[in-house]
Fold this sequence. Notes:
This protein has 268 residues and is mainly α.
Amino acid sequence: SCSAMSTRVEKANIPLKDLQTLLGEPEETLEAKEAFPPQLYVHSAAWGMSSAEAECVAARACFAITQQNHRCVVSENWSMSPTERLPLLRRSNDELFAGLDGVLQYLAHFTKSEDPEPALQLAYQRLALRALYPAWDHLMWCQADNFEHTCLPHYSPHHDSAIVARLVCWQRRKATEERTLHAVEELTPEQLYDKARQAYRALADKLGNQPFLFGTRPTCVDGVVHGHMQAVLHTPLASNPLRRDLQFFPSLVQWNERVGALVAKAPP
């Protein structure tokens, strides 16, 4: 289980591997023995989920599915990450892998050679990251009723005062709006949600009658999609059109429960 810790990870100006090159030291491989297990910083549990953040739920699910050794550390300090978002993975040599993208980059080094259809897995993983997560982030943080009803009450107790909490949350709300609506192309909120709906249909078609998205055992794609769907189904929002859209596909809801049960049985 996760343990609380107030450790702050300082942002390095020069990546570790560049420092190693400058110093003439050989670059350490991920396969090299760690001095201690990598630490996965995630937001605390909430609303029956392992974390209040969809990306943190996904990161924990991916570690459980790949059975990679790690230590889970609860933190509400998202500023510790270079991207100012959790999850954050810190190796024993202080190398950082920020955000869900970073966690997946780390875990990709341990992908088993027999994993089915690696190129197609990557395509569906990108579909989830580019269509599902931006829609969810915008719905939770940028819709005024959800921001007031869910985000502020949940995150306010983690700050010294209500004023500080509101300022920090508003900063994140602004950054989220910029990232989700303007990062790649100009989108309206409805276009953003429509992309998520299309992704649900594509995932339901891919799942078919299989227990998991790529056959009889789960992959990191299952973990990534599971994080989004857990948040959509369980976060208490004032307005949640994505939940209605997702429940239109009962096979995905049942699949999500199956992945959740598997993750819950994994060693802490």
